[in-house]
User: What shape does this take?
Amino acid sequence: MASAEQILDELTAGNTRFQQGTTSPKRWQGPEAVRVQKPKAIVLGCSDSRVPIEMIFDQGPGDLFIVRVAGNIAAPSQIGSIEFAVTQFDVSLIIVLGHTRCGAINASVQALQDGTAGISDNLRSIVDRIGPNIHHLVDAKAATPSSLSNQCMSANVLASVKNIEQASVSLQQRTTQGLLTICGAYYDLDDGGVRFLSDP
Assistant: This one.
């Protein structure tokens, strides 16, 4: 079985091919495409339609177990889905993938600045999870809107990474034992590149 580091290298190479326009065709239907589910990695990504996760890593059907929700938040249902994939398929790599110009991040910044009046309860449930991860950046008022959005996006990704590990005993144990790697990254809508984040 490939290590998390080897899988990261493979996905990084796939993203390079995506940026260069040299990805290989994938067969998405038929017996060969759907015979087994043996994902290499789990990706918790944003619902944004501009972020086609399999495509940006040059992967095909069955290669990635993808959980998508606005703002790539790590709420209980997302963590449960991740736990399922880790235990069911013995996956060793989880990537939390944010992206530039994220609408959920911008809505959360706006809510922190102006309040949540007019926001539906369902949307507020997302904003309320993002807000604590970014309020210190919004309160600082030291960045341009574009820079603030990117800073908040990165902070929210890293908070989701931490939340996935801390909110799940089984995932925390696997991480401690060196069986699981959880990392944060973001997709740049402008150049198609995926960049990995380090803990602050």
User: Anything to note?
Assistant: Strands lie at 41-45, 64-68, 93-99, 181-187, 194-197. The first strand starts at residue 41 and ends at 45. The helical segments are 4-20, 31-34, 53-56, 76-89, 103-114, 121-140, 145-166, 169-176. The mean pLDDT is 93.
